Structures are given as C-alpha cells and as structure tokens.
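Notes from the 1:1 (GR / supervisor)

We went over the backlog. Supervisor wanted to see one worked example end to end before approving the batch request, so GR pasted a single chain during the call. The sequence is below; no edits were made to it. Supervisor asked that the structure be written out right there so they could see what the output format looks like.
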Amino acid sequence: QVQLVESGGGLVQTGGSLSLSCAASGRSFTMYAMAWFRQAPGKEREFVGVRIWSGGSTSYADAVKGRFTISRDNTKNTMNLQMNSLKPEDTAVYYCAAVIFRTNYLQNPTSYNYWGQGTQVTVSS
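Structure output shown during the call:
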C-alpha cells in the first residue's frame, strides 16, 4: 500500500505562482512513477505531468509545459509541483497519483493505483 497526501494550493491571481506537494508513505519504494492530474468542475480528470520515481525523467501536458515543474525531495519522499504564470484555466482540484508497475500509459488516469485526496487551486482573473 502507498499513501499519498497533498498539501499546498489555494487562491492566486493570474500570473502568480503556487507550489503543491505530495508526500508518499507506505511502500513508496515500489512506485514506478508519480503524477499530477487535475479536474475542473464538469470536466474529466486531466493529465498535468509525471515523474519516473527513481529515474527522474519528467513529462508534461502541453497546456502546462514551460510553466509547471515537477521535482522530487528525496529527504522527505515528496513530489512537488511548482506552478508559475498561472492562468484562470488552471483552476481545478489537483491530485497526485502513483503507479506501481511500468506502463506506457502514464497520461491515462486509469493506469494509477493510488491517489491523494486532492487540493484546490483557484486562479482569479
């Protein structure tokens, strides 16, 4: 079992920055990858970015590329999402997720085994 707990989020103006964290516990050493997804009201859950847990490579959705950065804090076993140049369309509940087994479908939320509870990000215009 892997437990994921997100923190951060909140309200920010357009062009501002926010940082989210996702703390992993339990059998986190078994994770292949951790990712961020988001879901706006009335929309499907959307891929934001992913990090291969041990290898370190990252990949981002086109909508956030160049603005969002995923990093790992090894000392705290956390994954961070730094969000810059935020836009109103970034408003959503943000979720972190973990997958245990290697998969080529890292942008598909159904690939993930574990999810955090979600944290709200609101960008005002």
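Supervisor's comment: The chain has a mean pLDDT of 95.
Batch request approved.
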